[in-house]
Design a protein that fits this description.
With 171 residues, the protein is an alpha+beta fold. Helix content is 27%, strand content 19%. It is built from five helices and five strands; from the N terminus they run E-E-E-E-H-E-H-H-H-H. The longest helix has 11 residues.
Amino acid sequence: MATKIKLMRLGKMRAPYYRIVVADSRTKREGRVIETIGKYHPKEDPSFIEVDTDRAQYWLGVGAQPTEPVAAIFRVTGDWQKFKGEPAPPPMKVAAPKPDRKALYEEAVRGNGEEPAAGATTPKKKAAPKADAPAESPAEAPAESPADTVAEAAAAGGEGPASGTTSTPAE
């Protein structure tokens, strides 16, 4: 049986990640595999590559043929040079380790343990002064009594709900 070392695509659209697998050469890309020997995440910065070197050397030794993308990955990791007996490549770029979240939290608590010396950190907004002041204040305006308004309404013709006339809407 002819075996190939190839990439098995996983993930979603525009966010692929791959497993480096050993499979029969006649199987499809996501078909049945014999063994998984690594991972490849091309969208990370720098790309994440993890290969089980011992298993890769075994499969190359028994005649498994890597596809072009897998051969390129093996050249980056140095597995291909190790198999061929060539000098090792320069070391891969590795992402910086992420800081421990618990340590960051404890440091923030220690730093913010003291009360701030001068009030709030952001200044409080002040209300804008009114641009248009009324010429006449409500205290100076003549006040009308409710009796005056009722008398004006009665003199106006007696229309309204208190007049006693009923009106029907025109069709």
